[in-house]
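Support reply, case 0932

Customer input (verbatim):
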Amino acid sequence: MIPTCVWKERPVFESIFSVFEMRKIKQLVKYLVVTTACLSYPIQAATYPIPTDGSHIVGRPMVHEVVKGEHLEKIAKSYDVGFLALMAANRGVDPYLPEAGTFVELPTQIILPDVKYEGIVINLAELRLYYFEPEKGVVHIFPIGIGRIGRETPAMETYISQKREHPTWTPPASIRKEYLEKKNIILPDVVPAGPDNPLGNYAMRLAFGHGDYLIHGTNKSFGVGMRVSSGCIRMRPSDIEWLFQQVPLKEKVTVINEPVKYSFEPDGSLYVEVHRPLSQNEEQTHERLLTAPDEKLTEWLEENDLNRTRYSAALAVQSGLPTEVGVVAEVAKE
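Our regenerated output:
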């Protein structure tokens, strides 16, 4: 696990801003080539071939041109990406009143997590669920909502122990007390299936000591891609319906919490994808949380005479987008 810390020193933005912005400008020019293809929204979450050439990157960079009346939540839902992920990729864009004609970058290129490619893998820090089907050579990627502060979704290794279509919801005593104290709502002992059930139409229970945790749908799509649940993993209705039909009982589930992912590509280039670490308390939500530089990676950059500026920039900006931080010259020439 990469250590998380709060940097109190002066941010590195002033020394790296121009370098990073130039990279963004160059990328934008490249993205404009595919803009017209992005204007028609996808229907389902992304499915990609699992790389077989040593790469760990799937997808491609894409942008969307904002039209009048759109906001980032609507765009995120249309492309089936997370709301916070879309915000992180577009710092400075008003999430609720973006100016028409603005090009927003879509988090549609992704570094796969450093895990065994099998079953369901959830990375809490990036608010994504991966479903690997190695026998088919594909991975399906979905945005998710996870537990809020005080009701965190834990890292774990488990499996799907139960699947329920049109589930009922039995609110635990702690949730009933919370609803009463904070919302003045008296929850029934059992909430029946239907439009008022917060579990939506499908739910999959995790096994053993994690049986209180579900992967489920929702009757309120807003919040997918955010920390809003009581600990369960929340998915958009169309996503959970698809996943529910595909995933068998006993399917392995691995939940990790890694805000930084790396990919050493076959051409010698190194990419880094950085997400904001999860806040552990309310005070941290108002602080700038950064992930400490990885010592081994830092040493590797120095040994290969690569500029650490872009690496520092990626750690600071936390765009959630794969960022090239260097190329090993010897490999690149081959």
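We compared this against your earlier run and they match. Two observations from our side: The chain has two domains: 4-110+259-333, 115-256. The CA atoms of residues 66 and 101 lie 5 Å apart. Please reopen the case if you see a mismatch on your end.
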